[in-house]
Structure formats: C-alpha cells, structure tokens
Amino acid sequence: MELFVSAMAATLTTIAFVPQAIHIIRHKETRAISLQMYLVFATGVAFWLIFGFMLWNWPMILSNIVTLTLALTIISMKLRYG
User: Fold this and answer.
1) Helices marked H in 1-82 — which ranges?
2) Residue 42's CB: how many other CB atoms inside 10 A?
3) What digits encode the pLDDT tens for the residues 40-69?
4) Which end of the chain, N or C, is less packed with Cβ atoms under 10 Å?
5) pLDDT at position 10 over 90
6) Separation between Cα atoms, residue 23 and residue 19, nearest integer Å
7) pTM
8) Inter-residue contact 66 to 14 (CB < 8 Å)
9) Which residues contact 54 (CB under 8 A, 6 or more apart)?
C-alpha cells in the first residue's frame, strides 16, 4: 500500500508540471513565470531526489528525476526567453 500511495503521489505531482513545460516550449513565452519560484522548487526537488535515493524508493526517485528535468527545462527557457 505504501508503494501505491508513493507512486500515485509521485505521478500526480510530476504530471502537474507537464502542461506548463509544454506551453513554454511551444510558445517560448515565460514572462508570467517566476524564476525565483522555480529555482527554489528545483532545489527542493533535488533534495527529494536525494531522499528518495536514501530510502531507495523508486517511485520517488523516478518522479523526482522527471520533475527536476521539467523544472530545469522551464528554468533554462526562462533564462533564454526572459
């Protein structure tokens, strides 16, 4: 049951960032995005990833890898397109 709950939480929180990333990639418009928020968020996700490795919790590890990738993509697009 713990693995199921962890997997569901990881999947839902990861999926939440997909529409934002797709929108930014398609439209190259990032004015409404807060760089500071995404920097803090990416740092938090990196710590969750480390914690996932400490627990050897694969749903946590995989979802945080994907989420961190999405957050870093959004950050890089924000830096590129302002």
Assistant:
1) 2-15, 18-27, 35-55, 58-81
2) 18
3) 999 999 999 999 999 998 888 998 999 999
4) N
5) no
6) 6
7) 0.83
8) yes
9) none
